[in-house]
TrEMBL record, chain B:
<keyword id="KW-0808">Transferase</keyword>
<keyword id="KW-0479">Metal-binding</keyword>
<dbReference type="GO" id="GO:0003871">
    <property type="term" value="F:5-methyltetrahydropteroyltriglutamate-homocysteine S-methyltransferase activity"/>
</dbReference>
<dbReference type="GO" id="GO:0009086">
    <property type="term" value="P:methionine biosynthetic process"/>
</dbReference>
<feature type="domain" description="Cobalamin-independent methionine synthase MetE C-terminal/archaeal">
    <location>
        <begin position="23"/>
        <end position="336"/>
    </location>
</feature>
<dbReference type="GO" id="GO:0008270">
    <property type="term" value="F:zinc ion binding"/>
</dbReference>
<dbReference type="GO" id="GO:0032259">
    <property type="term" value="P:methylation"/>
</dbReference>
<protein>
    <submittedName>
        <fullName>5-methyltetrahydropteroyltriglutamate--homocysteine methyltransferase</fullName>
    </submittedName>
</protein>
<keyword id="KW-0489">Methyltransferase</keyword>
<dbReference type="InterPro" id="IPR002629">
    <property type="entry name" value="Met_Synth_C/arc"/>
</dbReference>
<dbReference type="Pfam" id="PF01717">
    <property type="entry name" value="Meth_synt_2"/>
</dbReference>
<keyword id="KW-0862">Zinc</keyword>
<dbReference type="InterPro" id="IPR038071">
    <property type="entry name" value="UROD/MetE-like_sf"/>
</dbReference>
Length: 336, 354
């Protein structure tokens, strides 16, 4: 029987009080963004915000709890922008959004940093072993695409170095149930034929650093057929699809044509629109996908927003969180 | 195609001595005086004794001060620094029936805006900028430029809960912008800047922006200068398409990344006038006059001096006020020095003479 699990890809909107407080404490310029060496006052504000979003997820009944990645000023580029051997350049556009991050210019070896592990340690303490912890990282390809290489000199070598770096970060993580690797660049700028064979290798490198279930989550649209086929060569547990995007038929086609792991994450709730979908609508979207891929017996289906939800006002995000949780529970009630 | 941009002569000051004239301007926003924020906060507190009329007085005073500050910096065309506007989408959404607000969302770092949601058909109600323009015009001795957030950006940077797609929403909004521009022109406005930063985020939508601009300029006389401002994008994806837009001037940020993309505009020939960003608005370090002169010369690779306007990359509101002022003052000094060097024949022009 299929298990429905409500979760999110992390990268939450900051609670509104934290938006103002941290803006006051840190400032609003390029140089004021998170550096990994924040003051006690800033760290304390993030601790409070983290605790709040963990409580919110528990209250909403979400099955996998994330840290929220509230410190990730540079969104998915965060693990690099706080690294000692990375300089931050100008602010650049974050995919095709009205959002910006600092261009991470890698100027030295990507040694283990432990930055993300520290956040997860703090989250694990809040959870006290009761609720499954979900770790979140950028996928190696997306992180390499978001960065500028001024050290490794070769695209394939850079991708491999990023994968090694992410694996070293994962190795320092506390116990976690799932690891979401967010890899939207696979959709927005698919790897060329030279680089594509390196993608499964890079994912294997990261996935092999953990015993947790690894979900490679893609969004901002459907994968190209070829990219999807390469992705399936990697060893991981679940692939994540954007079921909201206008080209979702392509996603169904890929899954039908090339096969699909028995575990999938479905981006059902729109992370970029305030219109709150009902639990029933979310469930219908899930069924729309699973019923069109009859060749697969789905074991675990993660219900999530398609994109990171930091694009939303917190009020609407919280409503969506509740709807995702209810959508997963709705099915449980039906099957009991 | 680009409009006839002969309308720039009206902005040349009567006492401009140099033969050459580089039109100096700003994109719009400027740091607010700290006391304005204080008055705004106090007005929101019920027991602080500050009334709505006190806030309006503070807005007027701030608009006066900043318009004058722009003139003191030596600019040829000025704005009031958008003192009455909190944010470029919010300000308009508050005035357009059909929008609602659900709270702030992140743009970058700790910079947020109250991204509104469109929940029903958008409509024109009260004028948006008429009072702002009339007030600034009364204060200013220089011509006043009016920045208006473009319909594509108003559509794209809202959550669309009501329209079938963003194009349909953008076209409805473009008709409202046209109505507003008509009123501004009737009140004497001659320099309108349509801000479409969202085009940089979704460059494949250039045809939607083009159609929206056609609607905006419908019925607007040729002596009204229409500028389009776009920033922080991959311009190879919208050039040469912008040559077909019905605009007099294209204002673009390129200083931020050291003019890496300037060559994009060299071929085919650039059609509208170019308004080039020559100071970085996200870096508090003040560019020297010499640096800015070098930046201005980047623009001369694309258009001759007669078609070059110089401005900051974007609105300067996030800079400390004294830094914003000095950047603009240096921008003007640099433009005047380049004009003198052009008059003296000391600059070899790469772009073809008109």
């Amino acid at each position: 029987m299929t298990e429905y699990v409500s979760t999110t890809p992390g990268l939450f909107p900051l609670p509104d009080w934290a938006k103002s407080k941290l803006g006051d404490l840190k400032g609003h310029q390029k140089g004021d963004l998170i550096g990994g060496d924040e003051s006690a006052a800033i760290a304390s504000a993030y601790d409070r915000a983290r605790s709040e979003v963990v409580d919110e997820q528990r209250d909403a009944g979400v099955d996998c709890i994330v840290e929220g990645q509230l410190r990730w000023d540079d969104m998915l580029a965060h693990p690099l922008t706080v690294h000692d051997n990375v300089d931050t350049g100008g602010i650049v556009r974050y995919y095709d959004n009205n959002n910006f991050y600092r261009d991470p210019r890698v100027v030295g070896d990507l040694t283990p940093s432990g930055d993300v592990a520290a956040e997860l340690d703090a989250t694990a303490e809040l959870l006290d072993g009761e609720t499954p912890l979900q770790a979140v990282l950028p996928g190696p390809y997306s992180l390499s695409e978001l960065a500028t290489d001024e050290h490794y000199g070769d695209e394939a070598e850079f991708l491999a170095a990023i994968a090694d770096f992410l694996a070293s970060e994962v190795a320092a993580f506390p116990d976690h149930e799932t690891l979401f690797l967010l890899d939207p660049s696979l959709v927005t700028s698919p790897p060329d034929d030279d680089l594509a064979p390196g993608i499964p290798e890079a994912i294997d490198t990261v996935a092999s650093a953990t015993d947790a279930d690894v979900v490679v989550h893609t969004y901002f649209g459907a994968l190209e057929e070829k990219t999807y086929a390469y992705l399936l060569d990697a060893e991981f547990d679940a692939v994540g699809f954007d079921v909201v995007a206008a080209d979702r038929e392509q996603t169904v086609y890929n899954a039908s044509e090339y096969g699909c792991p028995s575990d999938v994450a479905l981006g059902l709730a729109d992370g970029q629109n305030t219109l709150v979908e009902s639990a029933e609508t979310l469930r219908e979207r899930a069924t729309w996908f699973t019923e069109q891929v009859p060749s697969t017996d789905f074991e675990t289906v993660y219900f999530t927003t398609n994109t990171e939800p930091f694009y939303l006002p917190v009020t609407k995000f919280r409503e969506k969180l509740g709807a995702l949780s209810a959508a997963a529970d709705l099915d449980r009630e039906v099957t009991v | 195609m680009a409009r006839d941009a002969d309308n720039r002569a009206q902005f040349r000051p009567d006492d401009h001595d140099a033969e050459h004239f580089l039109l100096t301007t700003v994109v719009g926003s400027y740091p607010k005086p700290s006391w304005l924020s204080t008055v705004r906060d106090l007005e929101r507190e019920s027991d602080a004794g500050f009334a709505e009329s006190d806030l309006q007085e503070a807005y007027d005073d701030a608009a006066r001060v900043i318009t004058r500050e722009h003139e003191r910096a030596g600019l040829d065309t000025v704005v009031d620094g958008e003192m009455r506007r909190e944010e470029m989408v919010e300000y308009f959404a508050h005035r357009i029936p059909g929008y609602e607000f659900n709270g702030p969302v992140k743009v970058w770092g700790h910079n947020y805006f109250n991204k509104p949601s469109v929940v029903s058909t958008v409509e024109y109600d009260e004028p948006w900028l008429l009072e702002e323009f009339e007030f600034t015009s009364d204060v200013a001795e220089k011509p006043v430029k009016v920045p208006i957030t473009g319909p594509y950006t108003l559509a794209r940077w809202s959550f669309n809960e009501a329209y079938e797609d963003e194009a349909a929403l953008a076209y409805d909004l473009a008709d409202l912008v046209n109505e507003e521009v008509e009123r501004l022109v009737a009140a004497g406005a001659r320099y309108i800047q349509i801000d479409e930063p969202a085009l940089a985020t979704t460059p494949d939508d250039h045809a939607i922006v083009g159609e929206a601009l056609e609607r905006i300029v419908d019925g607007i006389p040729d002596d009204v200068r229409i500028c389009l401002h776009v920033c922080y994008g991959d311009y190879s994806r919208i050039y040469p398409e912008i040559n077909d837009f019905p605009i007099d001037e294209f204002d673009v940020e390129l200083c931020n990344d050291g003019y890496e993309q300037i060559d994009v505009f060299r071929s085919p020939e650039f059609q509208p006038d170019l308004a080039l960003g020559v100071v970085d608005v996200h870096d508090a370090e003040i560019e020297t006059v010499a640096e800015i002169k070098s930046n201005i010369r980047e623009g001369l690779k694309i258009v001759p001096p007669e078609r070059l306007t110089v401005s900051p990359d974007c609105g300067v509101k996030l800079l400390p006020r004294e830094v914003a002022y000095q950047k603009i003052a240096n921008l003007v000094s640099a433009a005047r020095e380049v004009e003198a060097e052009l008059d003296a024949g000391e600059i070899d022009l790469v772009a073809p003479e008109p």
